[in-house]
Amino acid sequence: MAHHLVAQPLRLMVLDDHAVVRHGLIARLADEPDLAVVGSHATSRELLDALATVAADVVLVDFSLGPSDIDGLNLLRALKVRHPRSRTIVISAHYSAATVALALKAGARGYVGKSQELDELVAAVRTVSKGRIHLHPDMAADIATLSEAASPHTDAEALTKNPQLSPREREVLRCCLEGLSVTQIATKFSRNVNTISTQKHAAFRKLGIRTDNELFKIRHQLDKT
Predict the structure, then answer these.
(1) Which of 32, 47, 38, 61 has its CA nearest to residue 126?
(2) What is the pLDDT of residues 189-222, one digit of tens each?
């Protein structure tokens, strides 16, 4: 009598600092017989500790964790180095071409925006588990456009060529990369400090970052590629 081999379900781990998001993801993934969630975590430390003892085929991570946690790019690099057999998919509200491109360079194999349907995430898990990259076709096209626009010579240009940034936001970002403070930028352009601050925060939001430190980490990442 022939024995039919039953495929083992894909083992998934979920990282998100919001409990409601974690539970929602797990509930949807549990509907799929070929997927099994083997861990659910609120911090990167919990995730990395768990991966040291439990194998996961695919790891789903939020890009922007709590203020005291590691930033998304460094987490992706850590996962790539420490757990190269686990393929990582980013799930994030930050869904700009610049952020997605940087995440892929840092080691992500897929990227799903939180505004997308959960079916898109299930498709991403299956695609990535087969060794392929998963991006929504529209995002893949946006990244191709961004790559064509970015200059290979200067990291500042590559960062500020994001098509979502307004000319003023690009200007403020370039000054930030040169090390100028908001007050110094306002003085340079004879504009209100609050206006400069608003434009800087808007640019940061579009790039999926929150601090000057993260901006310079992104610059360093672009410089190395």
Answers:
(1) 32
(2) 889 999 999 999 888 888 877 777 777 767 655 5
Question: What does residue 53 show for φ and ψ, rounded to 5 degrees?
Answer: -120, -25
CA distance 193 to 133: 42
Query: Can you give the pTM of this predicted structure?
Result: 0.66
- Decide: 159 and 219 in contact? Cβ < 8 Å: yes
Tokens 């690099």 correspond to 77
What sections of the chain are H helices per DSSP?
19-29, 44-51, 72-82, 97-106, 118-129, 137-149, 155-160, 167-177, 182-189, 193-207, 212-224
Residue stretches of the chain with pLDDT short of 70: 1-6, 146-162, 217, 219-225
